[in-house]
Amino acid sequence: MSRELVTRWFSRLASGEQDLPLLISEGNIYTPRTALNEVMRSSELGNKLQALIETGRFGTTAYEEEQVAKIRLRQILQAQSEKPLFATLSGKVFTPSQLLQEIESNTAIGVQWLNNEKTHMSLLVSAR
């Protein structure tokens, strides 16, 4: 993948996604914006991150992928106002902080949110 393709990949991401953690290299987490900057600089890190983007991978193990998803959800949910954000068919309503608690407690709802975020992350990294 050329620098131009990485630029195109980055430009296809929603602006809110460009600064959320997505890629891991050598135990460090990087946002798409950081990856683009490193690729444009032709740094060693940029080459590693470009290779991840080329192959549609995060550079993570399943455990690390879950941790990145938790970090992303924490950033997203903490930026929301404490108004009801999610409701179940049974009528239970969740605020962002309650959803974070569900995610941290590994409840069925929390696991569902994590799995949805991991699927979303896969779509982001494969959008070339």
List the helices and strands and how they pair.
Elements (H helix, E strand, L loop, with lengths): L2 H10 L10 E3 L2 E3 L1 H10 L2 H12 L6 H17 L7 E2 L5 E2 L1 H10 L2 H19 L2
Antiparallel strand pairs: 1-2, 3-4
Condensed summary:
It is built from 6 helices and 4 strands. The protein has helices at residues 3-12, 32-41, 44-55, 62-78, 96-105, 108-126; strands at residues 23-25, 28-30, 86-87, 93-94. Helix 5 (96-105) packs across helix 6 (108-126).
Can you offer a commentary on this structure?
The structure is a single chain. This protein is mainly alpha-helical and 128 residues long. It has one domain (3-126). The protein has helices at residues 3-12, 32-41, 44-55, 62-78, 96-105, 108-126, and strands spanning 23-25, 28-30, 86-87, 93-94. The strands form two sheets. The protein has a two-stranded antiparallel ribbon with strand order 1-2. Strands 3-4 form a two-stranded antiparallel ribbon. The longest helix is centred in the C-terminal third of the chain and has 19 residues, at 108-126. It is elongated.
Strand order of the largest sheet: 1-2
Structure annotation, total helices: 6
Based on Cα principal axes, name the global outline: elongated
Rg over C-alpha atoms, rounded to the nearest angstrom:
16 Å
Q: Total number of β-strand segments?
A: 4
Detail the poorly predicted runs: none
